[in-house]
Predict the structure.
Amino acid sequence: MKKTLETACGVLAAAALFGIMALTFLDVCSRKLLDNSIPGSLELTELMMVAVIFAALPLVSLRAEHVSFDSLDSWLPAGLRRRQAMLVHLLCAAAMLALGWLMWREGGQFLATGETTAQLKILKAPFIYAMGVLCALTGLVHLGLVTQPPVEPAEGEGAAL
């Protein structure tokens, strides 16, 4: 299941990022060579950026690659660090599941009103629904991590000030 999630989210994020890169390249070439921008390129870039960000959320949580403040962790006993990690994962799970539910509800409202992008008239609801599903997946990842021991950063990871 972990491998499927990593593959699906990784492919989605990578494809969207590649799409942003290709669209930006073609748009710049079009502006320089043809003196005309690709219509709706900003809207498409925004929608693909949503895909990159929200597809990366479950991956970042699954790999414990999020930003964390761990300056005091070396001073805490292992048992307290374990309970702290459990609490953090439970809070993150609750927040992401709630956000997923809110996004899903908002997607329904966007679908009911037929909300579209300004220039290309692309329905926004599918993107809002996808954001909700990916937030919920991230919440489920955090629920799965509640029972796991805290991840120790690898040697050389992070930055020291």
User: Anything to note?
Assistant: The chain has a mean pLDDT of 90.
